[in-house]
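SAMPLE LOG
Freezer: B-3
Tube label: C17
Construct: single chain, 205 aa
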Amino acid sequence: MHIRLVACAALALSVAIPAAAADLTYETPAAQPGWQVSSAYDWSGFYLGAQGGYSWSQTKILGSDQDANSGSAGLHAGYNFQSGNIVYGIENDFNYNFEKNGDADLEWDASGRARLGYAWGRTLFFATAGAAAAGGKVDIPAVGKKDGILIGWTAGGGIEHAVTDNILVRGEYRHLDFGDKDFGSAIGDVGASQDKLLFGTSYKF
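STRUCTURE (predicted):
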């Protein structure tokens, strides 16, 4: 009798334990998201825009240094490529300078540059460098009057932000060095450089 009771109890346990185990639900802990930075905005494509700001120009003429500070306004156009968070491309710009120093002015400047940046979502931090040119005007009473184009380089950087998918705003600083140019025997070599602080907006197509 006792043997039968023990056998029946053992049989009941052998059926009940697997059934109870089958009813248990195991949940795999959700993986904790890792810290990652991704670009949620596509920076690639063509863009066209305008900018304005302030320029500080330095010229060296007839052995003396002269400064001319003024407003500046212009246009820019470029194309971006994107690989992950890295954004790279090319940009051209043209600016008119409102400076009127009297002896030597940089009436306009233009550049063709490469850009390289890091996209943090809808914000782009970038560096830029390339070739630059400027239209110089030298006008000294009793000495002579000359116009010429100075060629040099430019480098700088800035921050750009996508307000919408198509509207971009930016701020940037650039230094431009135009070296020396011979404006003729009456004037001789004229050296020029410029610093610019520009703010602009672009439309990305």
